[in-house]
């Protein structure tokens, strides 16, 4: 009670070890899974620039669908696109938008890839919520729970 089971990974991507760790957490009594991305994320910035270096290459490849989702979302919403500004690595607002979509997609993958997590979310036994931590303000913005 009141404890955290943290499973950190660069750019909060999903892999088999993370799935297994979260399944252990919920089987041990965890009631909430927060997929917590953050603003100014080096992993997301690396994915945006197409960084290819060591094992980071395959890790950052998993962020690319979120970049595409963000760009499509901005293409379909000129007002938001204008508010976000230039789609560049140096634009913290743009990177934070990708962090938002990346957290959403990682949460979706937890559901699609783990029958244990999916069953517990569907039954209401646990809550799964994507969120983004703003490193400038310390504020966490929670998305709609799955
Ligand atoms: Zn990061």
Which of globular, elongated, flat, extended, rod-shaped describes the shape? globular
Q: What is the CATH third-level topology name?
A: Beta-carbonic Anhydrase, Chain A
What does the average pLDDT come to? Answer: 95
User: How many DSSP-defined strands?
Assistant: 3
Bin the helical content: 40-55%
C-alpha termini separation: 23 Å
The secondary structure category is mainly alpha
CATH class: Alpha Beta
Strand content: 5-15%
Largest sheet: 3 strands, mixed
Question: Could you explain the architecture of this structure?
Answer:
The chain is 51% helix and 12% strand. With 146 residues, the protein is mainly alpha-helical. It has a single domain (10-142), classed as Carbonic anhydrase (Beta-carbonic Anhydrase, Chain A). Strands 1-2-3 form a 3-stranded mixed beta sheet. Strand 2 (127-133) and strand 3 (140-142) form a beta hairpin. Helix 4 crosses helix 6 and helix 6 (92-113) crosses helix 7 (115-122). It starts with 15 loop residues before the first helix and ends with a strand. The structure holds zinc ion. Residues 11, 38, 41-43 line the site of zinc ion (ZN).
């Amino acid at each position: 009670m009141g404890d955290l089971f943290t499973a950190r990974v660069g750019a909060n991507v999903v892999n088999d070890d993370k799935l297994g760790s979260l399944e252990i957490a919920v089987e041990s009594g965890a009631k909430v899974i927060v997929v917590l991305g953050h603003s100014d994320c080096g992993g997301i910035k690396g994915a945006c620039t197409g960084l290819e270096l060591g094992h980071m290459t395959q890790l950052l490849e998993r962020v690319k669908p979120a970049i595409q989702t963000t760009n499509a979302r901005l293409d379909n919403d000129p007002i938001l696109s204008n508010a976000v500004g230039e789609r560049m690595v140096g634009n913290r607002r743009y990177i934070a938008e990708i962090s938002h979509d990346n957290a959403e997609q990682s949460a979706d993958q937890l559901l699609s890839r783990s029958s244990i997590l999916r069953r517990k979310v569907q039954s209401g036994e646990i809550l799964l919520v994507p969120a983004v931590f703003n490193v400038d303000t310390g504020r966490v913005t929670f998305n709609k729970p799955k």
